[in-house]
Every structure is written in structure tokens, then in C-alpha cells.
User: Fold this.
Amino acid sequence: MTMDTILGGNYADPAFHAQGLYIGGAWLPGTGIPVINPANANTLAEVPDASAADALRAVDAADAAAANWRTTPARQRAEILHRWFQLVTEHADELAHLISLENGKALQDARGEVAYAAEFFRWYAEEAVRIPGEFRHAPSGANHILVDHEPIGVAVLITPWNFPAAMATRKIGPALAAGCTVILKPASETPLTAYALARLGAEAGVPPGVVNVLTTTQPAVITNAMLADPRVRKLSFTGSTAVGRLLLAEAAKTVVSCAMELGGNAAFLVFDDADLEAALDGAMIAKMRNAGEACTAANRFYVQSGIHDAFVAGLTKRMAALKIGPGTDEQTQVGPMISSAAVTKIDRLVSNAVAQGARLHTGGAPLPGDGYFYPPTVLDNVPLDAGIAHVEIFGPVAPVYRFDTEETVIRMANNTEYGLAAYVYSGDLTRALRVGKGIESGMIAINRGLMSDPAAPFGGVKQSGLGREGGVTGILEFMEPKYFAVDF
Ligand code: NAD
Assistant:
């Protein structure tokens, strides 16, 4: 492919991004994976289905580029990342359209995602030149302790479909800033955004082989092949806890360093003393960003008895007023779910909860038609042992539970294997902080419906993950400390 075809073209056009696997700076044509528009079940484009041999070719390319990239001055790496940030920003509208097409999310969500995604390049361009080292005196007085941080090596990055741009840049940004070369395997539901980012990266000056992108229908086969290759030293995964467990077991065979951003079951707590309107505003963001297809999405609303009925009435009114439609329509607020299987799962969770005694206030059944639409839904009186209280809903459904005391609600919030995100609304900041301390979660939003920020450490405790992405420490996930014992 010539430079002209790389630079030209419409970034919103699916066909433009279905050029092939991106390995060693070249596009290797292929087909085999149809990319479906979830708004109407039509095929948007077809991308290649990589084999294990292709994956090892990508490891060859990443390894061949590694020596030069790790010794490229940090300032130069930073400037390339900064140019990449600028190009993503310049193409923001086209990228948002592409994301809406293949993922289904509403354009307003897609625009938010592109801005968030670009920020990881800008933030890590700034961090690339601030990689810390350490100098200490050994307590014994025998020597000095010098600690350097070196790039860990070739990194395999695996991302989900729910944030096709941001989950990729949240890994590529720190990896490249640290001096690592990468192989990105995006979800096969949303590969076009990943290829679009790679194209902009090449334009920004990322050298061939530093970023490689593979799509496949056999993620286990190609990932296992890469993890068995001793040149691969890092696996950074974002996806479900079930797949995370499998990958941790696989990575154990070659003792590959793992970062795991896994599932969530976020509790959203509203105390009687909360500002009701603010809590409803926050609830709509925490629940409905991405139509509920977010790992941080509020999955369980715990509302104190004194404010419970007013909260349910207010939430029902707001949820029922949302405009449903194809994500690419400018007026749409709730796009389709990613697949018909996702709709079936949500429908089952809601029907079972209702059969167990939950009260339905709005929504509650899939919408007819070819697209994968499920309407905004509010339930209350949900039994604590209903499946919906323990499983990631990943859809526009808000189950509300009543509580009376601080102690009980902390126990309820912690009754899950997950520990990614939680939200607390209270007019008493001391109480909100105390409750936040009691909740087993990597992230707590207080009187806010959104916590994601490239400058903050994102990640979970318990079975929501290992390690953190973003913030000042995110870069260290892609580095290994090397200690020198030095006698002057
Ligand atoms: P998923 O686990 O099914 O897939 C994630 C990625 O892993 C995809 O690229 C998929 O192709 C790949 N994959 C699947 N099986 C694999 C295997 N055996 N070996 C190697 N790779 C494999 O998750 P999903 O449905 O794409 O995404 C939704 C999940 O992601 C939810 O659980 C959500 O909470 C989680 N998520 C977490 C975060 C976070 O930061 N903690 C962010 C976004 C999404």
C-alpha cells in the first residue's frame, strides 16, 4: 500500500479500514470476519481472520522493532504520541461515526469516547519524559542502590468491543511511552476502529512493527501461541473475568507479566441526605453512558428508604424519555446492544427478576426489528438473590434495592466477587468518604456519575482485575525495575 492510500480516504468509511492485518507496518489482505452493524444486522465490511502463524509473524515484527524503539529518546517517543493525539482529535468526528457504526453506541457517547481515547496519547506523551528512577543508600552503608526502569518487552494487548478506541489507547499509550512494542488484538465485533487507529499511528510517525494489529475468530489459539513465545513479556487484557481467568492460567506457563482489567458489578448508593436531582443526573450517566455497556456501569442501585420512592419515580421518568435509535442518528440517546445474544441475556435477567417479585416501572422487553435493541428499563423491589444482582447486566437496566442503614448497605455493596467501581451520593462528605472506605472497590465516585480519567489509576480489586491503567503509575505496568548494587 502506498503512502497516498494511507493518508487519503474517509475515516468514517468501514471499507477503508478493512485493508488487512497490520503487521510490521504493512497491510496483509484477508477476509473471514464480517463486521456487523448492530442497528440493522447488516454487514459493514469484512476483516481478516489471523492464524497462529500470522500472530507469530506479528511477534517477529514487534521484536524486530523493539531494540530501536526502546532506545529512541523519550522526547521523540513523546512527540510521536503527541502527533497521534492530534490526528485522532482532527479525525474525531469520522472516528466517532465509525465507532457508532460497528459498536452501535450513540454518537454523543462515541464522541466522548474518542476524546477520552485521544487523551491517553496526550497523557502518556507527557509521562514518557518523566519515567522515574531511584537512588538510595543501603542501610548497611555497604553500597548504593540504583533503580532503573526498563521497558518490559513485547506486549500483547487484548481489548473488548465496548470501548473500541479507548481500551486500545489506554494500553498503547503507556506501552509506547515506556518503550515497548505491541501486538493489539481487538474484539472481532469492533475491529475497524483499531485498524483506523493504527493507520493514524503510522501517519503520526510510529515506526513499522512498533504497533501491530490482528483480528481473529480464534482468540485463544493465537493468544496462546504468542504467550508461548519467549519474546512476549507482557499481557495486558481488558475483558470479562471469565476470559481473564483463562488467560492468567495460560500466562502462568511462561510466567508472563499480566495486567487484567476485568468485569464489574458497580453499586450506586443514594443516602436520604443526597441532593435528589444531582443523584438522578449522576445515575443517568453511571447507568446509561454507552447504554449500560460499560464495566463501570451502575449495576445495582441501593437507595435509602426515605428517598427511595422519589428516586424510583425520577429515574423512571428520565429513563422512559430517552430516545432509542441507531447510534449514528444525531438524536439517538440509546443505541442498540452489541449482539442479539446480548439482548437475550438482558431479557433473561429482567424476566427472571420479575418472576422473582421485582416490580417493572418502564421497559422490560426487547424491541422488535432487525437491530439489537433493548429499551431503558427500571425495576425495584428486586430480591437480593436475583441473578441480576450478581451478574454484569451490560445493558440499559436499572435494578433498585431499598436499604436502611449504612452498615447494611456496605455489606450489600460488598456481596459480589467484583470490585471495580462504586458510586456514593450523600450530602455529608464525611459519611460518603467513610462509606467509600468500607466498599471493596478500586474506584469510588462521590456525588459524581463518572470517574474515568486518563490521569487517574483505573482498575479493580477482587475478581475485577490486577494492576492499574492510566495515571502516573500506568506506565510502570509496561516497565521492569532493574536494581544495580553500586560501590563507588
Ligand atoms: P470478552 O472477555 O468476551 O472479550 C474480550 C477480548 O478477549 C476480546 O478481544 C475477545 O476476542 C478476547 N478473547 C475472548 N476469549 C479469549 C481467549 N480464550 N483467549 C484470548 N482472548 C480471548 O469480553 P467482551 O464481551 O469483549 O467485553 C465485555 C467485558 O469486558 C465485560 O466483562 C466488561 O466489564 C469488561 N471490561 C472491563 C473493563 C475494565 O477496565 N475493567 C473495561 C471494559 C470492559
Observations:
- The pocket of nicotinamide-adenine-dinucleotide is lined by residues 158-163, 167, 185, 187-188, 219-220, 223, 238-240, 243, 246-247, 261-264, 295, 392, 420, 460, 465 (CB under 6 Å).
- The chain has a mean pLDDT of 97.
- The longest strand covers residues 144-151.
